[in-house]
């Protein structure tokens, strides 16, 4: 429990004590491919879902871009006693919100 508290304090120091934070999402278009990145450690479900939504576009998903905030576990993992969940300051569903934000920006880039 001491270790958990120490890690939680470190994560909190990165994001302050705000109820919400604006997380920078990065997107680059390189030829016909898209590179997406964000400063959390996302689960593979994120890149799998983005590739599913854009089957005709090569997608490279990057974690820990320009920083490291915390894990972004899938909603289904919340309620389990595993490190990525108890370490994360993000609420259940945050990874899915990130996927949706990326999807919207990716659509814009592909139609520009």
Flag low-confidence runs: none
Number of strands: 5
Note the total helix count.
4
Helix/sheet category? alpha/beta
Shape: elongated
What is the overall pLDDT average?
A: 88
Distance between the termini: 50 Å
Q: Please write the string of helix (H) and strand (E) elements.
A: HEEEHEEHH
Largest sheet: 3 strands, mixed
Q: How many distinct domains?
A: 1
User: What is the helical fraction, as a range of percent?
Assistant: 40-55%
- The fraction of residues assigned to DSSP E strands is 15-25%
Biggest sheet strand order reads: 1-2-4
Rg (C-alpha, Å): 15 Å
What's the multimeric state? single chain
List keywords for this structure.
about 110 residues; two-stranded parallel ribbon; 5 strands
Write the layout of secondary structure elements.
Elements: H1 2-15, E1 26-30, E2 33-37, E3 41-42, H2 44-53, E4 59-62, E5 71-72, H3 83-87, H4 94-111
Parallel strand pairs: 2-4, 3-5
Antiparallel strand pairs: 1-2
Describe the structure.
It is a single chain. With 112 residues, the protein is of the alpha/beta class. The protein has one domain (2-111). Helices cover 42% and strands 16% of the residues. The chain is built from 4 helices and 5 strands, in the order αβββαββαα. It has helices at residues 2-15, 44-53, 83-87, 94-111, and strands spanning 26-30, 33-37, 41-42, 59-62, 71-72. It has a 3-stranded mixed beta sheet, covered by helices on one side. Strands 3-5 form a two-stranded parallel sheet. Helix 2 packs parallel to helix 4 (94-111). The chain starts with a helix and ends with a helix. The model has no long low-confidence stretch (mean pLDDT 88).
């Amino acid at each position: 429990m001491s270790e958990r508290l120490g890690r939680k304090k470190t994560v909190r120091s990165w994001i302050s004590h705000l109820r919400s934070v604006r997380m920078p999402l990065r997107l680059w278009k390189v030829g016909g491919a898209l590179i997406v990145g964000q400063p959390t450690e996302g689960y593979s479900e994120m890149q799998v879902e983005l590739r599913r939504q854009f089957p005709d576009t090569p997608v490279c998903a990057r974690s820990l871009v320009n920083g490291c905030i915390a894990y972004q576990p899938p909603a289904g993992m919340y309620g389990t006693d595993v490190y990525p969940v108890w370490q994360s300051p993000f609420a259940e569903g945050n990874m899915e919100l990130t996927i949706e934000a990326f999807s919207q920006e990716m659509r814009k880039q592909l139609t520009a």
